[in-house]
User: Which sequence fits this backbone?
C-alpha cells in the first residue's frame, strides 16, 4: 500500500509533463491533411472523416478520451460537437476552437420503426415549445455558458404514473445529458421530460455506449435514444426520428499556444484532482455505488457458478456418453467465446423482451463462464488425490460420505484453491465490461466522472487501487477458508 501511495505524486508528475503544447492553425477543413485527428467512434464525424485518406484518424469511445488524446499529444486535432467542450473546459485544459465545420447536422430523438405515435408526440411537444418560446429558453441556458455558471440544476418533477419512458442516452457530457448524484440533467433530457409529462409517464434513464444504445432501442430495451443523435438517411432506414430540435456544427479543437495554464505543485495538483473528481458534486458516491455493484455481481456469479460447476463436473463423470458429450460441448463453447460477446447475446437477444434486469443478466453470464472453469478445477483436484486415501478411510471405519468430506475433499480443496482463486479474480476483473449493458459498475463510474471532469489520472488511479484491494481481499478470504491439513 505504501508503494501505491508513493506512485500517486509520481503519476501526477508524469501526467503534467506529458502534455506537449502543439498548436495547429486551421483555415479550412482541407488543412487537416497529414494530421492526427481523433473523434468519437460511431459519430457522424467518424463516418465523414473515415472517407478521407489523407489524415490519420483515431477513434475513441467517450468525449473524455477524445479530449485526452489531444492533451497527451496523441492527436493534433479533435473533432466534436461545438458545445461539448465549453469555455470553462477549454480554459482549464488550454485548448481552443480552431475552426467550425462548414456543415450543420440536424439532431433529433430516435425511436423504433413501430413507435410512430411516440415519435409524433415528441415532434408535437417540440413544436409547442417552439411556439411558446420555452424551447429557446432551454437553448439559451444549455447551449451557452450559462449552465456552467450555476451550482445546481432543476428539471420537471417526475410525477408520471404510467409505464416508465425508457430513455437510452449515449453521452454523459454536459450540456446534452449528464448525471450528478444519481440525478440526470441536460438539454435533451429536459425535452424528454416534457414528453414524459405529456404522456403521464415517469422517466427511466440509462447510459449506453453509442452502438449499444441503437441496439437497446431496436430490441425494445429502450423507447428512445438521445445523446446528440444526428438524423441521417442511413439511420432513417431502420429507425424513426422526431423533428430536429437543433442543428449542431462540428468544431475542430486544438491546443492553444496563447493559453495561460495555472502552474501548480504536485501536492496542489493531487489535492485539486481529488477535490474535482471526488468531492465536487459528491462524485465519490458514484465510485461507492459502482464498487458495490461490482462486488454484488461478482459474488453472486461466483456462488452460482460454483454450484453449476458441480453439475457440469457430474455430467463429465457420468457413465453415459451423451452426458459426457454435453459437458465437453459446454466447456468447449465457453472456452471459445469471449465474455463480452456472450453478455451482449444474452442481454440483447435471449433476455431482450423478458424484463430480466441487466445486473441479473450479468450474473448469469459470468456464472456460466465460472461454472466451466470450476468444473475443470473440481476434476483436476479430485483426480489428484490417490485412490489409497479413500481405501484407507473406509478401512478405518469411515462411511463413504465421511471419507469424502473429511479426507478427500479437504485435500482436493487445498490443491484446487490456487486455481479457484485465479478464477474468482478473473470474475472480479471481468465485470469491467458490464457497462456495455448499462450497468454502473466500478469501471463505468470512473467513465462517468471522467466525462464530467475530463481528467484521466485520478479516476483511473482510484479504480485501479480499488480493484487491487478487491483482488487482495478475495485472496485473503479464500486463504482463511482453506481447511487445515489433516494427518491420517
Assistant:
Amino acid at each position: 500500500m505504501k508503494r501505491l501511495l508513493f506512485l500517486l505524486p509520481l503519476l501526477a508528475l508524469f501526467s503534467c509533463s506529458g502534455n506537449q503544447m502543439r498548436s495547429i492553425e486551421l483555415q479550412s477543413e482541407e488543412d487537416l491533411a497529414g494530421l492526427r485527428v481523433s473523434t468519437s467512434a460511431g459519430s457522424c464525424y467518424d463516418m465523414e472523416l473515415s472517407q478521407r485518406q489523407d489524415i490519420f484518424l483515431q477513434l475513441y469511445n467517450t468525449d473524455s478520451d477524445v479530449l485526452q488524446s489531444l492533451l497527451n499529444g496523441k492527436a493534433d486535432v479533435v473533432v466534436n460537437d461545438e458545445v461539448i467542450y465549453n469555455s470553462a473546459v477549454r480554459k482549464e485544459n488550454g485548448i481552443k476552437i480552431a475552426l467550425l465545420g462548414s456543415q450543420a447536422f440536424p439532431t433529433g430523438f430516435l425511436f423504433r420503426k413501430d413507435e410512430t405515435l411516440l415519435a409524433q408526440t415528441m415532434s408535437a411537444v417540440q413544436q409547442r415549445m417552439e411556439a411558446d418560446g420555452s424551447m429557446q429558453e432551454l437553448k439559451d441556458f444549455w447551449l451557452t455558458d450559462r449552465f456552467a455558471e450555476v451550482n445546481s440544476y432543476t428539471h420537471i418533477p417526475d410525477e408520471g404514473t404510467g409505464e416508465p419512458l425508457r430513455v437510452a442516452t449515449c453521452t454523459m457530457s454536459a450540456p446534452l445529458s449528464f448525471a450528478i448524484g444519481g440525478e440526470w440533467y441536460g438539454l435533451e433530457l429536459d425535452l424528454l421530460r416534457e414528453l414524459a409529462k405529456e404522456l403521464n409517464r415517469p422517466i427511466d434513464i440509462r447510459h449506453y455506449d453509442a452502438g449499444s444504445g441503437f441496439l437497446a432501442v431496436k430490441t425494445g430495451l429502450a423507447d428512445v435514444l438521445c445523446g446528440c443523435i444526428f438524423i441521417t438517411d442511413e439511420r432513417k432506414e431502420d429507425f424513426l426520428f422526431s423533428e430536429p430540435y437543433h442543428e449542431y456544427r462540428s468544431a475542430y479543437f486544438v491546443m492553444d499556444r496563447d493559453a495561460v495554464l495555472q502552474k501548480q505543485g504536485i501536492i496542489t495538483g493531487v489535492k485539486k484532482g481529488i477535490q474535482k473528481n471526488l468531492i465536487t458534486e459528491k462524485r465519490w458516491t458514484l465510485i461507492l455505488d459502482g464498487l458495490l455493484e461490482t462486488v454484488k455481481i461478482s459474488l453472486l456469479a461466483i456462488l452460482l457458478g460454483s454450484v453449476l460447476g458441480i453439475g457440469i463436473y457430474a455430467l463429465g463423470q457420468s457413465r453415459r456418453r451423451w452426458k459426457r458429450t454435453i459437458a465437453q460441448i459446454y466447456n468447449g463453447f465457453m472456452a471459445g467465446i469471449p465474455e463480452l460477446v456472450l453478455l451482449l447475446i444474452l442481454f440483447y437477444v435471449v433476455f431482450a423482451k423478458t424484463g430480466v434486469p441487466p445486473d441479473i443478466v450479468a450474473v448469469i453470464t459470468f456464472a456460466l463462464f465460472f461454472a466451466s472453469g470450476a468444473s475443470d478445477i473440481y476434476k483436476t483436484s479430485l483426480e489428484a488425490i490417490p485412490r489409497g486415501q479413500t481405501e484407507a478411510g473406509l478401512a478405518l471405519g469411515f462411511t463413504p460420505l465421511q471419507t469424502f468430506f473429511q479426507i478427500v475433499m479437504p485435500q482436493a480443496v487445498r490443491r484446487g484453491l490456487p486455481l479457484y482463486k485465479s478464477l474468482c479474480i478473473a470474475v472480479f476483473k471481468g465485470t469491467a465490461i458490464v457497462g456495455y449493458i448499462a450497468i454502473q459498475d466500478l469501471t463505468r463510474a470512473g467513465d462517468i466522472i471522467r466525462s464530467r471532469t475530463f481528467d484521466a489520472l485520478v479516476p483511473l488511479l482510484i479504480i485501479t487501487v480499488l480493484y487491487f484491494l478487491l483482488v487482495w481481499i478475495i485472496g485473503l478470504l479464500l486463504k482463511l477458508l482453506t481447511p487445515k491439513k489433516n494427518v491420517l
